[in-house]
Specification:
Layout lengths: L1 E4 L9 E2 L12 E6 L3 E4 L11 E8 L6 E7 L8 E5 L2 E5 L5 E4 L6 E9 L2 E18 L4 E3 L3 E8 L4 E7 L15 E6 L8 E9 L7 E8 L1 E6 L6 E2 L3 E6 L4 E4 L7 E7 L11 E7 L4 E4 L4 E4 L11 E4 L7 E9 L2 E12 L1 E3 L6 E3 L1
Parallel strand pairs: 3-11, 12-18, 19-28, 20-28
Antiparallel strand pairs: 1-24, 2-14, 4-9, 5-6, 5-10, 7-8, 8-9, 10-11, 11-13, 13-15, 14-16, 16-17, 21-26, 22-23, 22-27, 23-24, 25-26, 27-28, 29-30
């Protein structure tokens, strides 16, 4: 059986995410935190400045106006973990006038720390808070042979300049951007060799004290439980005939899938449940092909970026007749298309002016 990898220009890259031009530099720092975790927004990059009045405000990603969170007059009382409840949320301000709270899904946006002395602006720091949501599906322990989806969603999307997923060994993985601020990679037909910590490397847009963030997801495959695909959706069976050595197309379901494989059953088999031959396999996310015959090739999309559906081009010999079944895997679903192929051979007898089909 022949096994090899396809090489494409776009195999490894840091995907560039679209940013909003009018907001690209409207902050002095970017802080990234996962949803549901505590976050601290510093008001000063160095030693705390002495300011009479400190005011924290926020502007969510979809808003255009500042909303006051809390304000403290340091000349009247010392700042030592003051607690404020604003809009039903708890915010804490510490001695260095940094702001701390538990980040929720709606907290992404800009935060302003305004320091004033005698009614005049002393300094203002604007921080863009980017919220990160990491998801792993299916949840571990993951059945053997599943298609694993690793997703990173960043809000607001314009906080990110680019990013990609890395394998546990640090090898770049094909990464797609199905929506603004979303980085997706997939691991079709996982095995125990796919276990480990996968890294999402995220590059920040504009000014930031930390230009790159790395976050991990742990993939654990259950080698004792195989993925089940009980409801394969089959299209109607097609019948095709071809002359030997002339190309014929074997169709697949019209699905933009992650993984495709082609089986063949020999004609006129008398055993009750004959075992098919696995002729071809293609993993689009890993750009990996495995095939048992040299006279068949894959048509259609050859990478994650390519659109369209799968199909196969076969130049059959007489012994290649039979029933072919193309199966396309998309996440946890499988779609099938069967084709019965008849192969004809033309022989030219010199003693006759006719052609005989055999």
């Amino acid at each position: 059986m022949r096994t090899y990898s396809l090489c494409f220009v776009l195999i490894c890259k840091c995907l560039i995410l679209t940013s909003a031009p009018d907001r690209a530099n409207n902050w002095t720092d970017v802080v990234m935190v996962q949803e549901g975790r505590p976050v601290t927004l510093p008001c000063s990059d160095g030693p705390a400045m002495v300011a009479e009045q400190v005011t924290w405000m926020m502007m969510r990603a979809e808003e255009k106006h500042w909303t006051p969170l809390l304000s403290v007059n340091t000349s009247r009382r010392p700042v030592d973990k003051l607690l404020s409840n604003t809009h039903g949320r708890a915010f804490e301000i510490f001695e260095d006038v940094s702001l701390q709270f538990i980040a929720t899904a709606t907290d992404g946006g800009r935060y302003s720390c305004l320091m004033q002395q005698r009614g005049r602006k002393l300094k203002e720091k604007i921080i863009l808070l980017a919220l990160l949501k990491l998801t792993l599906a299916p949840a571990p322990p993951i059945p053997l042979g599943s298609t694993v989806r690793l997703t990173a969603q960043i809000s607001p999307y314009y906080a990110v300049a680019g990013g990609m997923w890395l394998s546990p060994a640090g090898v770049p993985l094909l990464t797609a951007v199905p929506a603004q601020g979303t980085l997706l990679t997939k691991l079709p037909r996982v095995s125990r060799e796919d276990n480990g910590l996968y890294i999402c490397s995220i590059h920040i847009q504009g000014q930031s004290s930390k230009p790159e963030h790395k976050h991990t997801l742990n993939v654990t495959v259950n080698a004792w439980e195989a993925a089940q695909f009980p409801n394969i959706k089959y299209d109607s069976t097609e019948s095709r005939a071809s002359l030997s050595h002339l190309p014929v197309t074997l169709p697949c379901p019209p699905i933009y899938g992650d993984y495709v494989q082609l089986y063949r059953w020999k004609p006129n088999q008398r055993t009750p449940n004959p075992e098919p031959e696995l002729v071809f396999q293609f993993d689009r996310w890993r750009n990996h092909i495995k095939q048992s015959r040299a006279n068949i090739q894959l048509l259609g999309p050859s990478s994650v970026e390519a659109g369209g559906n799968f199909s196969f081009l076969l130049r059959p010999k007489l012994e290649d007749a039979g029933r072919y079944q193309c199966e396309v895997f998309l996440d946890s679903a499988v779609f099938g298309q069967s084709t019965t192929l008849t192969v004809l051979h033309v022989s030219n007898k010199t003693s006759s002016s006719t052609l005989d089909l055999t």
